[in-house]
Amino acid sequence: TEFTCRICCLGAGYVGGPTMTVIAKMCPDIKVTVCDLSERRIAAWNSKSLPIYEPGLQEIVEGARGKNLFFSTDIDAAVREADIIFVSVNTPTKKSGIGAGQAADLQYWELAGRHIASIAEGPKIIVEKSTVPVKTAAAMARVLESNSKFAFEVLSNPEFLAEGTAVEDLLRPDRVLVGGEQTPAGLAAIDKLANIYRRWVPTEKVLTTNLWSAELSKLTANAFLAQRISSINSISALCENTGADVDEVAHAIGVDSRIGPKFLRASVGFGGSCFQKDILNLVYLCRSFGLPEVANYWEAVITMNNWQKQRFAEKMVSAMFNTVSGKKIAVLGFAFKKDTGDTRETPAIHVCEQMIKEGAALSIYDPKVTVEQMNYDLGSPSPDKVCMEQDAYVACAGAHAIAVLTEWDEFKTLDYSRIYTSMVKPCFVFDGRNILDHAKLRQIGFQVFAIGKSFSNETVLD
Ligand code: NAI
């Protein structure tokens, strides 16, 4: 078959993989090649067990792979034949040097750009898919211009998908945002990319803007989302001390259409690879543009999140008679949220580390996170300190306490009477996601601690 257009994507991660898969599904006439430096990752994309888990993804990959969707480590070949090149490489927080701990590390981005310039044999549209600081596209355009005789248009097309619902978000996005240079060539490039999305996204949801607005919109969106979580979490602490119920407060404010009901769930804290990194990035930008008040304002979102994680760990220790030393604690859920196996910045890491420091023995169960990943995240703890179980009942047997750290649906329907019988008394439950039926647990005999609910004021049913 003759393809009408060729696309390639550098970076076959949580963003590049699903995004390109959905483009391939919706545009059978476009050849889509997803590339990565990691042979292991590409091999996994070409196998039966994909490197990431997303509901619905496997079916779509299998439907398009080998037809118009390809996964390859041959970056040069894919770049050469592509009209449009997406760059979806990682942009982690810098670990050292200027802006360490806050600024985005753009080395992978710039290397990808220079590489494209060195091998391109014609003009290309480069699409910034990674989340990057404002003005990165302009810098990239200069790198490309100075290293190649061909014309490159750099577009910003930030991705708003959420892990766990990536396929659904890509098929039915609230909006797609395409930013570009407001020149004739820039506008033409914007139109070319926007037209691909318009094949399945209603035109009014495909927003076009200038480069910097697009870049800043992504950082701002994540800052606002995280801010809502920190805001309700701050109120959860107040609820615990006053007898108010944070879920009731969240409901009461969320029905106000000006506030809206989403992203108001109090929890042990937010995680994921993006929120903290992107806010730090925004904070760094504000400081470098001489706006310390703005920087401090957003930084507080992270301070509150760190405090919430720590507060939860401290509550566990104080509730269990101020010592967890030698006690077995069952941890249900390790991923940073349900329906994903991703553990980047998961609050579970912080809580588990605190418990290990206090001398507890952990048994962890998560439906999707691999044992290798948990071991890696916890710094390869000794097996007598931490064991990973394949079954929630096994994890809970013989434990003094259960800590629910991810809101997996399957935790709601476990047989807690059976679990209670298998545990050491008194049995504690620390519900870090407020997903369990607390009244029922108390009836069984558990001591229940939940986020934003006062312990003493709860009536114990008998
Ligand atoms: P990831 O770490 O899962 O994937 C990035 C991939 O790029 C890695 O597999 C890496 O080997 C590869 N890579 C690095 N340099 C390369 C090069 N020169 N050529 C080819 N491949 C290269 O990262 P993820 O989660 O997909 O994020 C990518 C970007 O998208 C980040 O900037 C992130 O902030 C942003 N983003 C992430 C979202 C998420 O939910 N994870 C949502 C929206 C945006």
TrEMBL record:
It catalyses: UDP-alpha-D-glucose + 2 NAD(+) + H2O = UDP-alpha-D-glucuronate + 2 NADH + 3 H(+). NAD(+) binds at residues 11-16, 36, 41, 89-93, 130-131, 163, 274-277, 344. Residues 330-438 form the UDP-glucose/GDP-mannose dehydrogenase C-terminal domain. GO terms for molecular function: NAD binding; UDP-glucose 6-dehydrogenase activity. The active site is at C274 (nucleophile). It is an enzyme of class 1 (oxidoreductase). Belongs to the UDP-glucose/GDP-mannose dehydrogenase family. PANTHER family: UDP-GLUCOSE 6-DEHYDROGENASE (PTHR11374:SF3), UDP-GLUCOSE DEHYDROGENASE/UDP-MANNAC DEHYDROGENASE (PTHR11374). This is UDP-glucose 6-dehydrogenase.
